[in-house]
Amino acid sequence: MDNTNAAELLLLRRVAKDDDKAFGELFKNYYPRLFTFLFRLTGSHGCAEELANDVLLTLWETAGRFRGESRVSTWVFGIAYRKALAHLRKRKLKLVSFGDNDQASQAAISIDLNSQLEREDWVRCSIDELPPKQKLTVMLVYFLGLSCAETAIATDVPVSTVKTRMFHARRNMKQYLAASGVPRQREKDSGNEE
């Protein structure tokens, strides 16, 4: 068990005993990360705040139920994942881009298709087109750095389901990028410009 997880586990055990100070520390550590994760999914400050607070309230109410079978962060983001998915289903909101939607980033898309920034924007757009469960899985793995096993715990599905979602997400992203006419890095680097 790494030091961060050990410290969070101790805080969580104190929270389970209604220790306000311990909860304040967990809140301070997790709120910014939860807000960012949830904002990227909903595109709404209000929704992200509401959901982050709801996750932290659930954390306060259920801290004693944590069995320690995963990292504390995996458990916390598992709660966030399920609440975000339920919220999106209930409101029937479309997952929005987690990139900036301002005019500057839109202008960057049209400037130079071969630039690294451009490629990153296209990849973000391809992620935005994924079905909700695939997008959430990609975000947990690539943006939060959870392993497939941790993502399986967080999303309450078998590891094989996480791997299947990742497989389909990569395939869907590849199809989106091909349909968008984004040049492949290999072709550019090998000098094949037919």
Protein described:
This protein is an all-alpha fold and about 190 residues long. It has two domains: about 1-95, Orthogonal Bundle (Rna Polymerase Sigma Factor, Chain: A); about 100-180, Arc Repressor Mutant, subunit A (Orthogonal Bundle), CATH 1.10.10.10. It has helices at about 5-15, 20-40, 45-60, 70-90, 105-110, 115-130, 130-145, 150-155, 160-180, 185-190. Helix 2 crosses helix 4 (about 70-90) and helix 5 packs across helix 6 (about 115-130).
Rg is 19 Å
Name the average pLDDT: 78
Query: How can the largest sheet be summarized?
Result: none
Indicate how many domains the architecture comprises: 2
Tally the helices.
10
Global morphology: elongated
A few lines on this structure:
This protein is mainly alpha-helical and 194 residues long. It has two domains: 1-95, Orthogonal Bundle (Rna Polymerase Sigma Factor, Chain: A); 99-182, Winged helix-like DNA-binding domain superfamily/Winged helix DNA-binding domain (Arc Repressor Mutant, subunit A).
